[in-house]
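Technical annex, item 7. During the second reporting period the consortium partners agreed on a shared format for inverse folding records so that results from different sites could be compared directly. Each record opens with the tokenized structure and is followed by the designed sequence. A conforming record, contributed by the partner at site C, is shown below for reference.
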């Protein structure tokens, strides 16, 4: 792979990490839970923000990482053999974050799914403030 392509891959990974870790954004668990919904919505044609082809590329990259078959085997090439895995892993992480970010935003906008904040109603109940009732409220640690 050309050096410029590797640099672009790592830049997109850095951007994905910045997006994935921003305060108030969806957690990695929420993103992982969104993947099956994303696949279903794309296959049904309901969500057009990505394509079946892109999802197949993501699945292929995941399969490559867990497969015992390797284009550049670590046993023969040492650290250089890890380079292809690192590039594929970086691309995969960046794509998953980017695709789930757009999909969860679509779910929020349209009120579909159970994405981060999508249709989130507060849990019904009553909040009791001990200070109002005359009780003491211990300070938070």
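Designed sequence (site C submission):
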């Amino acid at each position: 792979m050309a050096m410029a392509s590797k640099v672009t891959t790592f830049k997109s990974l850095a951007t994905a990490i910045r997006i994935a870790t921003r305060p108030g954004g969806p957690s990695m668990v929420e993103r992982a839970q969104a993947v099956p919904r994303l696949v279903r919505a794309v296959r049904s044609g309901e969500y057009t923000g990505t394509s079946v082809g892109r999802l197949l590329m993501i699945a292929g990259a995941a399969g490559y990482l867990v497969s015992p078959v390797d284009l550049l085997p670590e046993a023969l090439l040492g650290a250089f053999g890890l380079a292809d895995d690192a590039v594929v892993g970086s691309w995969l992480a960046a794509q998953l974050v980017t695709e789930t970010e757009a999909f969860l935003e679509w779910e929020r906008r349209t009120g579909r799914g159970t994405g981060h904040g999508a249709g989130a109603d507060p849990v019904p109940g009553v909040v009791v403030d001990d200070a109002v009732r005359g009780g003491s409220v211990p300070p938070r640690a």
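The two ends are 52 Å apart (CA to CA). The helical segments are 3-20, 28-44, 52-66, 74-77, 79-110, 130-133. All partners now use this format for quarterly exchanges.
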